[in-house]
UniProtKB/TrEMBL annotation:
GO terms for molecular function: heme binding; iron ion binding; monooxygenase activity; oxidoreductase activity, acting on paired donors, with incorporation or reduction of molecular oxygen. Its main location: membrane. GO terms for cellular component: membrane. It holds the Pfam family p450. Keywords: Heme, Iron, Membrane, Metal-binding, Monooxygenase, Oxidoreductase, Transmembrane, Transmembrane helix. It is found in: Membrane. The keyword Metal-binding applies. The keyword Transmembrane helix applies. InterPro entries: Cyt_P450, Cyt_P450_E_grp-II, Cyt_P450_sf, Cytochrome_P450_Monooxygen. The chain crosses the membrane at residues 6-32. It is a single-pass membrane protein. It comes from Rubus argutus (Southern blackberry). This is Uncharacterized protein. Its cofactor is heme.
């Protein structure tokens, strides 16, 4: 009997220690670690909203995105699309400057100077340094591949039109997707999209699965434009 009681006491202590350790790791993840990171960022001169438990800036970000989606964007008045495409980031930068941060849940995201903030010659210079593949001279050498992929796509359109008695309605998006993949395949790997179709399909599915948990932050581009 005493052995049974001792076993139950030992088992209870083990379970309690596991629960306490798990609770501490969760509390550290949702509160203590974010607050430490916030202090560290502020000491380095970054500014932003104070961390809010678990959600951070996610709720405010979602609200601003919904408000932006409800208003059409006139392309004729301004090229500054940031207030409608990334309204919360735009608001944060205006409030705290370019060296700022926001919160994606308990994880801080730095909003600092970089390629996205540069314009003109400065942008071209840094773009060339970061990714020399897309330098104008190298792009010129890729023109034959671009031309071949575009020609094949147009031939497919022409064949569809001829089957439908000189006119038809086409969903161009799948064709453009295939053409883009074909160009990448030809220029980077020296093969056609058709040979690597399975790889591109797997990459597309992987991208979809990765974005699915963050669907609350996504937007449909067409919702911002006046279509009529």
């Amino acid at each position: 009997m005493s052995l049974t009681v001792a076993s139950w006491v030992a088992l209870t202590l083990v379970l309690v220690s596991i629960i306490v350790r798990w609770a501490w790791s969760v509390l550290d993840w949702v509160w203590f670690k974010p607050k430490k990171l916030e202090i560290c960022l502020r000491e380095q001169g970054f500014k932003g909203n104070s961390y809010r438990f678990l959600y951070g800036d996610m709720k405010e970000n979602s609200i601003l995105l919904k408000q932006a989606k409800s208003k059409p964007m006139s392309l004729s008045t301004s090229h500054d699309i940031a207030p409608q495409v990334t309204p919360f980031v735009d608001q944060t930068v205006k409030a705290y400057g370019k060296n700022s941060f926001d919160w994606i849940g308990p994880i801080p995201r730095l909003l600092t100077r970089g390629l996205a903030n540069y314009e003109g010659e400065k942008w071209a210079k840094h773009r060339r340094i970061i990714n020399p593949t897309f330098h104008s001279e190298k792009l010129k050498r890729m023109l034959p591949s671009f031309h071949q992929s575009c020609t094949e796509m147009i031939k497919e359109w022409e064949s569809s039109v001829s089957k439908e008695d000189s006119s038809c309605e086409l969903d161009v998006w799948p064709f453009l997707e295939n053409m883009t993949a074909d160009v990448i395949s030809r220029t980077a790997f020296g093969t056609s999209y058709k040979k690597g179709r399975k790889i591109f399909e797997l990459q597309k599915n992987k991208q979809y699965m990765q974005q699915k948990p963050y669907k609350v932050f996504t937007f449909q581009d067409g919702g911002f434009y006046q279509l009529r």
